[in-house]
Amino acid sequence: MRTKIVRVAQGKESTLSHLYIDGIFQCFLLEDKIRQVKIKNKTAIPEGKFHLRINTCGGMNRNYVQQYGPMHVGMIEIDDLPTFDAVYIHIGNTIEHTSGCPLVGLSYIKKDGDYQFLQSRDAYKQVYPKLLAAAKSKDNQIEIQNNFQF
Q1: Domain spans of the chain?
Q2: Which DSSP symbol is given to 22?
Q3: Closest Cα to residue 5, out of 80, 84, 103?
Q4: Among 8, 116, 131, 145, which residue is least crowded by beta carbons within 10 Å?
Q5: Cα-based angle 89, 133, 102 (whole degrees, multiple of 5)
Q6: CB neighbours of residue 34 within 10 Å
């Protein structure tokens, strides 16, 4: 499976992206601002090719097991990132919910110069099984690229 994040727009402190799996648009992603120098919990992850893995440790995983039941078998983690740890694809509505992680959403608005998400839980339920399959696949690579041309 080919998984790709394509960043398409910048807000004042936020970044809007598209998530593709095997070339098909899945949902929007929301991250912090792209910065040349990392500010902990306030910087988008870098461009490049990394790996997806399933992380079954930690409090966030326990909360998701309670919220989503048997559908959830672990957090989808973007692994092998330089200077970033525990980067999960998860639910949330604003950049205050990211801490450097991509959030999922089915729609968005722009308010006070930054992007905000709607329908994050619905997006998670829709995309999680596909991301899980990608993380379990032999080619569990994810590519992240900036494309601010439109």
Answers
A1: 3-146
A2: T
A3: 103
A4: 145
A5: 10
A6: 16
Whole-number average pLDDT of the chain: 94
Distance CA 49, CA 32 (A): 19
**Residue-wise pLDDT tens digits, 103-115:** 999 999 999 999 9
* Antiparallel, parallel or unpaired: β 87-89 and 141-146: unpaired
18-25, Cβ contacts within 8 angstroms, sequence gap of 24 or more: 19/102, 19/104, 19/127, 21/127, 21/130, 21/131, 21/134
Contact criterion met (CB below 8 Å) for 117 and 30: yes
Q: How far apart are the first and last CA of the chain?
A: 26
What's the residue count for the chain? Answer: 150
pLDDT at 150 over 50: no
8 A C-beta contact, residue 100 and residue 32: yes
